[in-house]
Specification:
By secondary structure, this protein is mainly alpha-helical. The chain contains two helices and no strands.
């Protein structure tokens, strides 16, 4: 009787240990997933901020009171700067 009770407790202990190990593995996997998702969110927030800045620059460029060909030339230069900045941001993001 005592031997049976001891064996039952040992089996129960093994089941509990197995469950604890499984939960620890799940917890570790979930922590990794949270880390990856946080990084992804930060990258997307940075991209959003970059796009907002581009929109601000584009609005600023279109509102500049410059005459004729000077205006087109200035807009082209600013657009080239924006493209160059985008390339640098993309390079730094890698």
């Amino acid at each position: 009787m005592m031997q049976e009770e001891l064996q039952r407790l040992e089996r129960l202990t093994q089941k509990v240990e197995a469950k604890v190990q499984q939960l620890e593995q799940e917890n570790h996997a979930l922590k990794e997933e949270v880390f990856v998702l946080k990084n992804s969110l930060e990258e997307k927030e940075q991209l959003l901020e970059d796009f907002k800045n581009q929109i601000k620059i584009a609005k600023l460029v279109s509102s500049l009171p410059v005459e004729g060909t000077d205006s087109a030339e200035l807009r082209e230069k600013i657009n080239n700067y924006i493209k160059e900045i985008d390339n640098i941001i993309a390079y730094l993001s890698e």
